[in-house]
Amino acid sequence: MAAFITFSFLLLIIIFVYRNSKRRTNKVKLPCGDMGLPWIGETVEFYKAQRSNQLFEEFFQPRMKKHGNIFKTKLMGSPTVVVNGAAANKFFMSNEFKLVVSSWPTSSVELMGKNSIMEKQGDSHRCLRSIVTSTLSVSGLTAMVPRMCGSIENHMQKNWLDREEISLYRSTKMLTFTIVLECLFGIEIVPETLFGVFERVLEGVLSPPVNVPWTKFARAKKARAEIEKVLVGEIRRKREAMEGGGEEEDDMLFSKLVAASIRGEITEEEVVDNVVLLVFAAHDTTSYAITMTFKMLANHPDCYSLLLKEHEEIASNKRAGEALTFEDVKKMEYTWQVARETMRLCPPIFGSFRKTITDINFEGVTIPKGWKVLWTTYGTHYDEKYFPDPMRFNPSRFADPVQAYAFIPFGGGPRLCAGYQLAKLNILVLVHYVVTRYNWSLVYPDEPILMDPLPFPSKGMPIKISPKCD
Ligand code: HEM
């Protein structure tokens, strides 16, 4: 009897809450769109399109054609409004913390850590961001260029020398991972020992958060625990050395994070979670951007000739084996146009979710409090209003300034990518080393690109290489 009364009571509460929310949303003008099936909404269609890297063609574009640039749907149980176009990007990105907050799936938060910058707001977000960006100031970047050249030289000696074919994607992934550890953090860990463990964590970040032994999520949690153990050991060793006067705070990010923890500005957990988050944020995105830059160059020989000329000119002013400087990198203007055009067409990140913290009125529709907002790169990057003849690869369109919030591979507003400068440096310096030292060609010019959870070339983008004569 007691169980029956409790059940009836709960049912009444659910009906009351449902009716109330229905009445509230009935009164306002919601964006057009279909919410799909109960609870799961259009999640299956979304995941299917994502897996085959057809999110724009199969999910966003048909709905934009039917409902307009702003439409509603339901994804992973949440009512969601997808927004496209520079005005919407500006509105939602710049109103972070005021009208919206970033909103990541449970599995991503569990695996990156609740203390990572992506979960922070207000003062604690500002504090962590300023530590990260302090290493990427002009003086930080100037010091980083020769270090990066060293890491690339070593990687090429070990993995490219005397080889006729390499997987460009796997090689750049390993290399960008190494660069983050060696050049950004200055952590003394052999990168190869942790690379595979990080890969296992990544496999779980968008999987259902079910922690039973055979799931991707459980494997990822175990891998995350392994990383945590290594990092805690490194943090304590560094802390002891710094407190004992054996080591001083230097310009590397790991040292700055540990110093901030000694001063009590951040906790040990915050150091661990942010190292994990930054390694992820940095290496998969950058390696995909580099790989796709080479694919675009292979398919556009006229652009490659221009780019090669730029690098040959820089190399002609260097002695054999002399490292690049930040001044040299600044001269790589056309290469940066090529890289930006590549990221416009093939963005490493398709978009990002926010959650509304109040009812929002935007362009005549209301997005109720608690709904998700998904901004997407494709919807703006492929719009001819901002980029005429949008599907054509045309790097020189970036010779002139682009409208604000129309080119958003790095996001915008308070959550603009904190590692933007590092990514730029990494792409430009690596392109220089490859094109000045090797003749190269794609093994599979039409290799399909898949997504899980980030985009990747399905065969690892093998390239044939042969060293150039000096
Ligand atoms: C081509 C390479 C990269 C791309 C395309 C990229 C893209 C992005 C995007 C779109 C966001 C915003 C996400 C949002 O609005 O929710 C973001 C944030 C972030 N990125 Fe990057 N990223 C790249 C490289 C890097 C690198 C090298 C680092 C490491 C230093 C990094 C660190 C971060 C961090 C810490 C954030 C969070 C910022 C915050 O919440 O305040 N990223 N990135």
UniProtKB/TrEMBL annotation:
Enzyme Commission (EC) number: 1.14.99.37
Entry cofactors: heme
Database matches in Pfam families: p450
Swiss-Prot/TrEMBL keywords: Heme, Iron, Membrane, Metal-binding, Monooxygenase, Oxidoreductase, Signal, Transmembrane, Transmembrane helix
Gene Ontology molecular function, alphabetical: heme binding; iron ion binding; monooxygenase activity; oxidoreductase activity, acting on paired donors, with incorporation or reduction of molecular oxygen
InterPro entries in alphabetical order: Cyt_P450 (IPR001128), Cyt_P450_CS (IPR017972), Cyt_P450_E_grp-I (IPR002401), Cyt_P450_sf (IPR036396)
Gene Ontology CC: membrane
Subcellular location field: Membrane
Signal peptide stretch: 1-19
Highest taxon in the source lineage: Eukaryota
Main location: membrane
Residues annotated to bind heme: 417
Bilayer topology term: Single-pass membrane protein
Family: Belongs to the cytochrome P450 family.
Protein name stated in the entry: Putative cytochrome P450, family 718
Species classification: Eukaryota, Viridiplantae, Streptophyta, Embryophyta, Tracheophyta
